[in-house]
């Protein structure tokens, strides 16, 4: 095991066994002199614009980035000009599959970018919101000096039953929850699900607050700890603190909410699942209903396990936890699933009881994406919000 400290553009600094060096050479058209190319991959959380993964322009017009990897790594990536709206595409503008390589030894990988998505304007995707979904505009996050758009879903009867107060579910990656036109890769259909289940009595009326993710800042904002493998600082504590101590106060003032932990939830998937479970133990006086789907518990070198182990069980908290059998890149699916299983077992050791305050769901057909999460939302909400 060697610890690599190379600080060239884009390379990782991490402990890996028998490391090998990968040189990625990219030939790309139409890259202005003041533009940069970026590597978005399964090695950096698919961030389309991270300066740590910017490619270096060579004298011959090609671009280069070095990566240090372990033999056997399954490496998938795309090249972008700084955003998913400027990702590489086929000559006709069609989406491309990821570049995929199995790393065995030190090697040079050469790829050619044919064209860019922004050179092929696409018809806007249709708006698909149903029910009462409103934008609350942009909110300032003082600790991070950023702004973030927030949406709110108000359940059937909210405007007519003016004396009733409602539980609230705060959710990450808000652009993916309600509307196909803003979703990255399909929507969760939260609004469709609640509009169907609330009128039939399957669910009590619930307000959902959808917080947009920060794009290139997403990994940082949804991870409570620094992660040297991804070279992020870990802004999750500051971001979660803003939600718990600022945004929630504003929502409670502006809408008829039930403000106690038993009626306040937080949820998300992948990185959003990680930060939601962290919130259960970091802010038990705020969040008492936790939805953690397909959670990236491996991130930040699995610090979440040690953190949960050290905490006392938050009284009155209910946790929904799940994972699909087909999550993760090929070759890591068993590990991804097993890590969620391990968290379920750790929660049981903390005193959580299956069917009472813990629901662990194994999805035999589940992949890592919005379609699978949308399919599991009804069961998750039913467990969290019905007695």
List the helices and strands and how they pair.
Blueprint: E1 2-3, E2 15-16, E3 20-27, E4 38-41, E5 56-57, E6 63-69, E7 74-80, E8 88-89, E9 99-102, E10 107-112, E11 115-116, E12 132-141, E13 146-154, E14 168-171, H1 190-197, E15 207-211, H2 218-221, H3 236-254, E16 264-269, H4 271-282, E17 289-293, H5 299-310, E18 318-326, H6 333-349, E19 358-367, H7 370-385
Parallel strand pairs: 3-10, 14-15, 14-16, 16-17, 17-18, 18-19
Antiparallel strand pairs: 1-2, 3-6, 4-7, 5-6, 7-9, 8-11, 12-13, 13-15
Helix pairs in contact: 4-5
Order of helices and strands: EEEEEEEEEEEEEEHEHHEHEHEHEH
CATH fold description of the largest domain: Rossmann fold
Structural class: alpha/beta
Uncertain parts = 1-15
Give the strand tally: 19
- As a percent range, the share of strand residues is 25-35%
Q: Within the largest sheet, what's the order of strands?
A: 12-13-15-14-16-17-18-19
Report the major sheet. 8 strands, mixed
- How does CATH name the architecture of the largest domain? 3-Layer(aba) Sandwich
Structure description:
- This protein is α/β, with parallel strands linked by helices and 387 residues long.
- It is 23% helix and 27% strand.
- α4 (271-282) packs parallel to α5 (299-310).
What's this model, at a glance?
This protein is 23% helix and 27% strand.
Key phrases:
about 375 residues; alpha/beta; Immunoglobulin-like; Rossmann fold; 2 domains; 8-stranded mixed β-sheet; 4-stranded mixed β-sheet; disordered N terminus
């Amino acid at each position: 095991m060697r610890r690599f400290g190379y600080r060239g553009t884009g390379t990782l600094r991490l402990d890996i066994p028998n490391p090998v060096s990968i040189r990625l050479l990219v030939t790309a058209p139409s890259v202005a002199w003041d533009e940069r190319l970026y590597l978005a991959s399964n090695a950096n959380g698919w961030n389309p614009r991270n300066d740590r993964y910017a490619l270096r322009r060579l004298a011959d017009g090609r671009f280069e980035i070095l990566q240090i990897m372990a033999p056997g790594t399954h490496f998938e990536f795309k090249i972008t000009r700084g955003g998913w709206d400027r990702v590489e595409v086929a000559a006709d503008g069609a989406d491309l599959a990821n570049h995929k390589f199995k790393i065995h030894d030190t090697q040079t990988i050469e790829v050619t970018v044919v064209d860019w998505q922004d050179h092929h304007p696409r018809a806007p995707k249709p708006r698909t919101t149903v029910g009462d979904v409103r934008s609350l505009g942009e909110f300032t996050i003082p600790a991070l000096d950023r702004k973030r758009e927030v949406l709110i879903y108000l359940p059937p009867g909210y405007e007519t039953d003016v004396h009733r107060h409602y539980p609230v579910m705060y959710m990450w990656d808000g652009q993916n929850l309600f509307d196909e036109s803003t979703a990255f890769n399909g929507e969760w259909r939260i609004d469709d699900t609640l509009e169907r289940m609330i009128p039939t009595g399957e669910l009590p009326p619930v307000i959902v607050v959808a917080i947009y993710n920060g794009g290139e800042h997403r990994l940082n904002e949804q991870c409570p700890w620094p992660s040297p493998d991804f070279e992020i600082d870990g802004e999750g504590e500051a971001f979660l603190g803003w939600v718990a101590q600022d945004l929630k106060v504003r929502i409670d003032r502006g809408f008829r909410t039930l403000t106690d932990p038993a009626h306040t939830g937080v949820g998300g998937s992948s990185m959003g699942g990680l930060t939601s479970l962290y919130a259960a133990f970091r802010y038990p006086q705020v969040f008492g209903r936790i939805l953690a789907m397909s959670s990236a518990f491996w991130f930040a070198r699995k610090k979440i396990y040690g953190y949960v182990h050290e905490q006392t069980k938050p009284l009155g908290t209910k946790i929904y936890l799940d994972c699909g059998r087909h999550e993760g890149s090929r070759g890591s699916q068993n590990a991804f699933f097993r890590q969620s299983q391990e968290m379920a077992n750790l929660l049981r050791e903390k005193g959580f009881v299956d069917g009472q305050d813990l629901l662990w769901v194994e999805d035999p057909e589940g992949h890592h994406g919005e379609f699978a999460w949308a399919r599991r939302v009804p069961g998750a909400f039913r467990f969290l919000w019905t007695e």
